[in-house]
Design a protein that fits this description.
The protein contains eight helices and seven strands. The protein is α+β, with helices and mostly antiparallel strands. The longest helix has 32 residues.
Length: 228
């Protein structure tokens, strides 16, 4: 329980205040004409980005440690929880002019760890932004009941897609794909840790893509709330 709270502080209470800075400073930079003022805003933005990277390194290690203990499981109302994560990461989407659609039904409730759930989605969103070559892309989230006791969640993007080799190894711990068209630097934990977070909650994760230039869809499963 204490580790849950510790990771929540890092993943939510510390990252959230950075959002407005990371969202508004680039807008302010574009509007300012005075070179001295632009330089000062750039310093602020550089420091905000450095702080974000430092927080993700701490969170990465905390999540690795957290995988060794029993999880605090709870009911997760998917649509509301995903809406909150989208809002929290809105600066990433606005910067790239990416539209996000949450098509998850209001009545779908999953059983999982809310901290891990948030980190899974933040990483998948970060990857979608990272590999969207042109501004104006789209990310679509869906969820369907895949069996009697599991929910299948999908995150589809219109990014650069993946080759078969990349799909086969993208979740490997030390795999570094040669993405020729990476657009922006990643801001999140690695996909290998995401796989561990999903499996720790009794689910699985995989990715599908028609090929390079045709987008990707990440799927993962979670248990259904037994009361539903």
């Amino acid at each position: 329980k204490q580790k849950d709270e510790y990771i929540h502080v890092i993943g939510h209470d510390l990252k959230n205040p950075l959002g407005p800075f990371l969202n508004l400073l680039p807008i302010l930079y574009k509007k300012i004409e005075d070179p001295k003022q632009k330089e000062m805003v750039q310093v602020l933005l550089n420091n905000a980005n450095s702080m974000r990277e430092m927080l993700y390194k701490i969170l990465d290690q905390a999540l690795q440690d957290h995988l060794e203990v029993d999880l605090e499981m709870e009911n997760i109302p998917l649509r509301d929880s995903i809406d909150e994560i989208i809002q929290r990461n809105n600066y990433l989407f606005e910067e790239r002019n990416i539209i996000v659609e949450n098509n998850v039904g209001n009545d779908i409730v999953a059983r999982g760890n809310i901290v891990h759930f948030g980190e899974i989605f933040e990483n998948l969103f970060s990857n979608a932004v990272k590999y969207t070559r042109d501004a104006g892309g789209k990310v679509v989230v869906n969820a369907v009941k895949s069996s009697n006791d599991m929910i299948q969640i999908s995150v589809r993007d219109t990014g650069i897609g993946m080759s078969e080799e990349q799909r086969n190894h993208v979740f490997d711990e030390f795999y570094k794909p040669n993405y020729e068209h990476q657009v922006v630097k990643s801001h999140g934990i690695g996909l290998s840790i995401v796989k561990k977070l999903v499996r720790k909650q009794g689910g699985r994760i995989w990715v599908e893509s028609p090929g390079i230039g045709q987008g990707s869809t990440f799927y993962f499963t979670l248990q259904i709330n037994p009361k539903k």
